[in-house]
Amino acid sequence: MNLAYDDLGPRGGSAVLLVHGHPFDRSMWRPQAERLAADGFRVVTPDLRGYGESKSEDTKTGLDVFANDLIQLADHLELASFVLGGLSMGGQIVMQLAKDHLKRVKALLLADTFPGLDTPAAKQARIDTAARITEEGMARYADELLPKMISKRTRATRPDVEAHVRRMMRDAPEEGAAAALRGRAERPDYTPTLKHIDVPTLVVVGSEDEFTPVADAQLIHREVAGSTLVVIEGAGHLPNLECETEFDEALSTFLKNSGATP
C-alpha cells in the first residue's frame, strides 16, 4: 500500500508518527508537525488508505488494515521505533497498532478517542452513513458534522479552523470514508488491551468534546498505568487545531518528560 505522507524535520531526530481521524487528512496535524520538526523531531504524517491523496479500492477497511499500512510505512522509512499519536479514529488505529506491535512504540498520544465498542445503534449508524455518503457525497454530511467537531467558542473565534475542518471533511473521498466507517463498525474492544501498554502515554481531550467526552479520556487514563491526562479547556473534538498552543505545550512537555528527545 502506497500512502501519501509528509516527512518533516531532521532525519536523525526521534521519529513521531501522527495518525489523522475521520473524515480528515494529514493536514489535520500540520501545526504539530511544524512545531515538533522545529524542535528537532522527525515527524511523519500520512494520509490513511482511502483518505487525502492515498488511494484505495476497499469497500471495507478494518482498523487492523490501517495499522498494518502504518507499520509498512515505518519499515519503508526505516523507523525501528517511534512515538505514535492519533486522534479519534486515528487513536483507535493507534490502539490497534499498539496491541499488535507495541515493541515498535516509544510513547503514545491518544487524543479524543474511545477504546470501547459501539452500541448496536451506533454501529448501525456507521453502516447507514457509509451507504449515504457513497450515494450523495460528503458535502451534507460534513456540514452536519461540523458543529459537533469543534466547539461553539472555536466557531465564534477561529474562522480559520472552521474553514480548514470543513474543507477536510468535504474533500474526503466518499468511498474511502465509507470503507472506513464499515470497518470501524466491526472493530474490537480495545479496553482490555490498555492494561498491557507499558510505554509513556499522553491522553488528551477537549473539554467540550461531544463525540468522545472527558469521561472516555478518563477511562483510558485509568486503564493505562502511569499515563498523563490533559483536558484542553474550551476545545471540542479537535483540540490540536482549536487550541494548538495549549495542545502543543502539553505534547512537548510530555515528550520531554518521557525521554523522547530529538
From TrEMBL:
UniProt entry tagged with the keyword Hydrolase: yes
A Pfam match: Abhydrolase_6
Coiled coil stretches, renumbered: none
Ranges where the AB hydrolase-1 domain occurs: 16-247
Entry keyword set: Hydrolase
InterPro entries named in the record: AB_hydrolase_1 (IPR000073), AB_hydrolase_fold (IPR029058), Carboxylesterase_BioH (IPR050228), Epox_hydrolase-like (IPR000639)
SUPFAM superfamilies: alpha/beta-Hydrolases (SSF53474)
One of the record's GO molecular function terms: hydrolase activity
Gene3D superfamilies found in the cross-reference section: alpha/beta hydrolase
The protein's name: Alpha/beta fold hydrolase
Organism: Amycolatopsis nalaikhensis
